[in-house]
């Protein structure tokens, strides 16, 4: 049993597809162990994506992530990190397999609907970034 962090990004929240995205997780064996809707500050977004701070797209990514509320979740299940990444699809929705969340709901590589932890270690750090232990059920 693993836990991973998922974020429904501002584009998908604005589009009103929070429920449809959550259904992908629940229908594929991922339980929602924690969930909240938050508006990130610039400071939050910069800290969360610090690993990308030297990349040319960093400022656009931060601006996008603070452009509206996001829904942050802890997903739990067998092989949750890899399963969530499979359900999400490729970073660039143009390359995402049909039926994945990004193929169905994302606009482009900047507004790509969801974030998901890419390793178990990052999942632990990202979950701790957003949730206190008592908020995870
Ligand atoms: P993810 O794990 O699939 O979300 O991808 P990464 O962790 O590599 O990148 C974080 C986010 O930065 C992605 O979801 C994209 O929104 C954005 N991003 C990554 N690579 C690029 C790029 O080459 N160009 C642009 N414009 N954005 C990118």
From TrEMBL:
Catalytic center at which residues? 115 (pros-phosphohistidine intermediate)
Q: Name one GO molecular function term.
A: nucleoside diphosphate kinase activity
Domain Nucleoside diphosphate kinase-like residues, every copy: 1-137
Indicate yes or no for the key word ATP-binding. Answer: yes
InterPro entries named among the record's database cross-references: NDK-like_dom (IPR034907), NDK-like_dom_sf (IPR036850), Nucleoside_diP_kinase (IPR001564), Nucleoside_diP_kinase_AS (IPR023005)
Which GO biological process annotations does it have?
A: CTP biosynthetic process; GTP biosynthetic process; UTP biosynthetic process
Recorded catalytic activity of this chain's protein: a 2'-deoxyribonucleoside 5'-diphosphate + ATP = a 2'-deoxyribonucleoside 5'-triphosphate + ADP; a ribonucleoside 5'-diphosphate + ATP = a ribonucleoside 5'-triphosphate + ADP
Protein's cellular compartments = Cytoplasm
Q: Which PROSITE patterns match?
A: NDPK (PS00469), NDPK_LIKE (PS51374)
Enzyme Commission numbers on file = 2.7.4.6
Q: Where does this chain mainly localize?
A: cytoplasm
Cited Pfam families: NDK
The entry's keywords: ATP-binding, Cytoplasm, Kinase, Magnesium, Metal-binding, Nucleotide metabolism, Nucleotide-binding, Phosphoprotein, Transferase
Gene3D superfamilies named among the record's database cross-references: Nucleoside diphosphate kinase-like domain
Q: Which cofactor does it need?
A: Mg(2+)
User: Cellular component per GO?
Assistant: cytoplasm
What class does this enzyme belong to in the EC scheme?
Answer: transferase
Q: Where does ATP bind?
A: 9, 57, 85, 91, 102, 112
- Residues forming coiled coils: none
Record text on subunit structure and interactions: Homotetramer.
Q: What does this protein do?
A: Major role in the synthesis of nucleoside triphosphates other than ATP. The ATP gamma phosphate is transferred to the NDP beta phosphate via a ping-pong mechanism, using a phosphorylated active-site intermediate.
According to its UniProt record, which protein family does this protein belong to? Answer: Belongs to the NDK family.
Protein name as catalogued:
Nucleoside diphosphate kinase
Q: What does UniProt list as this organism's lineage?
A: Bacteria, Pseudomonadati, Campylobacterota, Epsilonproteobacteria, Campylobacterales
């Amino acid at each position: 049993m693993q836990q991973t962090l998922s974020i429904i990004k501002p584009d998908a929240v604005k589009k009103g597809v929070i429920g449809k995205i959550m259904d992908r997780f629940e229908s594929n064996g991922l339980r929602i162990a924690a969930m909240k809707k938050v508006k990130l500050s610039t400071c939050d977004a910069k800290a969360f994506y610090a690993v990308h701070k030297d990349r040319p797209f960093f400022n656009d990514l931060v601006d996008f992530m603070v452009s509206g509320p996001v829904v942050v979740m802890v997903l739990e299940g067998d092989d949750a990190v890899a399963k969530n990444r499979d359900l999400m699809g490729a970073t660039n929705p143009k390359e995402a397999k049909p039926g994945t969340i990004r193929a169905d709901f994302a606009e482009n590589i900047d507004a790509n609907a969801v974030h998901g932890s890419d390793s178990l270690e990052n999942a632990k750090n990202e979950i701790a970034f957003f949730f206190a232990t008592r908020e995870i059920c």
